[in-house]
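Hi V.,

Quick status before I head out on leave. The structure for the redesign project is tokenized and pasted below; the design run finished overnight.
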């Protein structure tokens, strides 16, 4: 299935409410469909922050990017997600994953068990099952971050959107393998495929290298990396069409500092 492109902005929820609301409205004004917020104990809790953002920017979708399953019980995740869907009039997507490595310390701080990789995947499955039970005829879209074979298999089974959680150092060939594996496992379910953009433009700021992690500097400067979108707006549009054709990617999440730079591309594609 060929889907239209859509774009989201990943923004750290922090600061006073008025400033956060203004950031949400700016994301909407730039033409983005979704505001995404990370799950991190050093920031505001994502779901209350996203509820405030949705109230400030009518029409904007909101999504945690992504909740670490071990930080909450499966039932609590489902309860809060279902509530968000109700309070936003259906403008909420549940972003869920097994948790980045740093989330282990956050689980300990919250008094929650981290568990094995298999146990964390089962927590994701249980949360989605509990959400479907609460939703009834309503259906909250589920976005799952996945990279390994087992996570991709679960995402193919339960997710509506799958973010290919590839590091910036991951080659285009390997990402294509991940996308192909996902599509083969999903069959007729045909989930939407999403990816992160770490940088938009020809310059690679030091901050982006820090975000991307160890060993990423050389990868971000590779002309063929999927973590960066370079060139003129026309060249960026052409590259996105290539990614859709080769990988099936139709949803891009960009870090907030690059939202302005990508906005002309969003306008060109959305205005078609």
């Amino acid at each position: 299935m060929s889907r239209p492109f859509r774009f989201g902005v990943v923004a750290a929820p922090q600061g006073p409410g008025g400033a956060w609301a203004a950031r949400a409205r700016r994301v909407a004004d730039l033409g983005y469909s979704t505001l995404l917020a990370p799950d991190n104990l050093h920031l505001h809790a994502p779901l209350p922050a996203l509820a405030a953002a949705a109230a400030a920017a009518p029409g904007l979708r909101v999504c945690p990017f992504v909740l670490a399953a071990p930080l909450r019980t499966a039932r609590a995740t489902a309860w809060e997600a279902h509530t968000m869907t109700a309070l936003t009039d259906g403008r909420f997507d549940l972003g869920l994953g097994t948790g980045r490595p740093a989330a282990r310390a956050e689980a300990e701080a919250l008094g929650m068990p981290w568990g094995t990789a298999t146990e964390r995947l089962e927590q994701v499955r249980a949360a989605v099952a509990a959400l479907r039970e609460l939703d009834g005829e309503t259906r909250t879209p589920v976005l799952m971050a996945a990279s390994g074979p087992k996570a991709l298999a679960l995402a193919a089974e339960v997710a509506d959107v799958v973010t290919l959680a590839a590091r910036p150092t991951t080659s285009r060939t390997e990402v294509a393998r991940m996308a192909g594996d996902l599509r083969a496992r999903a069959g007729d379910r045909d989930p939407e495929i999403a990816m992160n953009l770490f940088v938009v433009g020809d310059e690679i700021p030091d901050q982006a290298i820090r975000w991307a992690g160890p060993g990423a500097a050389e990868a971000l400067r590779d002309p063929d990396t999927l973590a960066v979108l370079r060139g003129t707006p026309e060249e960026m549009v052409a590259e996105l069409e290539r990614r859709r054709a080769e990988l099936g990617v139709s949803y891009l999440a960009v870090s907030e500092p690059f939202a302005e730079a990508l906005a002309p591309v969003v306008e060109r594609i959305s205005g078609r």
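Above is the designed sequence. The chain has eleven helices and eleven strands.

G. will cover questions while I'm gone.

Best,
W.
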